[in-house]
Amino acid sequence: MHSGKFHGNACKMAASLCWPTNLVLSYEDVKNIATLNKTEGKLHLAKCLQWKSKIIEDDRFLRNTIQLEYLYDVIQFCATKGFPWSQISSVCLLAKEFLERCIGVTQTEAVNIFRDLVVQNSENIKESILKSFTTYIFSTFMHHFQLYQFVLTEAREEFLVKADVEIEPPGEILSLHTAKPKHIWDYEQKLQEITEGELLRQEELRKQKEALVGKEETTYAKKFEEKGENASLTREVLEQIIAEAAQSQCQRVEKLLQVKVEEKHEGLNFYLEKTSLPRPVELGPPPRTRQPPNHSAKSRLSTKTKASAKSTQSKTSKKAVK
Questions:
Q1: How do residues 108-133 score in pLDDT, each as one tens digit?
Q2: What is the 3-state secondary structure (H, E, C) of the chain?
């Protein structure tokens, strides 16, 4: 049953043995293959067989790789045994023809083929060399005969991966003179992220302050209208309105102070975050930060005098109301 299967595939596999029909290995070729290291020796043998180097490197050419390995091992065996270079060339041609004729036959037929080839080459190859080579063939090739037949006659299953890949064409190509080293670009991107976060937070705090001021003014007007409509403006009503206004004003000022403190605190945090970024040496030292204006003693005294005058004026107004 195996014989019929192998014979059926033999003609299909004949093309896989793409050796030149008139292969001749010269004295120098055999010597180079045997003396070079394994990789270079196999490459030289492939060149003699008129094969491209990709046959050795590509897994898709597994059969060719096995054939190359088979011939290379024969040459190495002969060289190790000390056979003359001219005899090694003849043995290599015998081994090549034997492998070609063994494809798709039974092991018994392979033995008969080998015997016939030995008889045909008995005049070209010494008897001692033929005996040694026969022992080698039966301990290697014949020992793994079924494996050789399977690999050289059975087609391998193709393992192909198909995947849809999206290709995005490059966007606008910038000129090279505007390009920056990657570490500088990374630094500027991080700095920009911090700056954008700072501006966003400043906008949120500004809206909070505006909301507090607008809400307070609306509350004042509403309370005054309610008091004016429901009661006459007596002394008690005015005192109550003033007390509520003062309390509301204190609450508003307290909330505004909280927002301002938060604004200063977060501004400092953003500043520290910026300065803690490792600045590339190529950009030089960081620019000086703008310091808050220093008021002179005269200016501070003038400010205190104005505040004192406002306080006195406020007290006088309260006495007049009483």
A1: 999 999 999 999 988 888 999 999 99
A2: CHHHHHHHHHHHHHHHCCCCCCCCCCHHHHHHHHHCCHHHHHHHHHHHCCCCCHHHHCHHHHHHHHHHHHHHHHHHHHHHHCCCHHHHHHHHHHHHHHHHHHCCCCHHHHHHHHHHHHHHCCCCCCHHHHHHHHHHHHHCCHHHHHHHHHHHHCCCCCCCCCCCCCCCCCCCCCCHHHCCCHHHHHHHHHHHHHHHHHHHHHHHHHHHHHHHHHHHHHHHHHHHHHHHHHCCCCHHHHHHHHHHHHHHHHHHHHHHHHHHHHHHHHHHHHHHHHHCCCCCHHHCCCCCCCCCCCCCHHHHHHHHHHHHHHHHHHHHHHHHHC
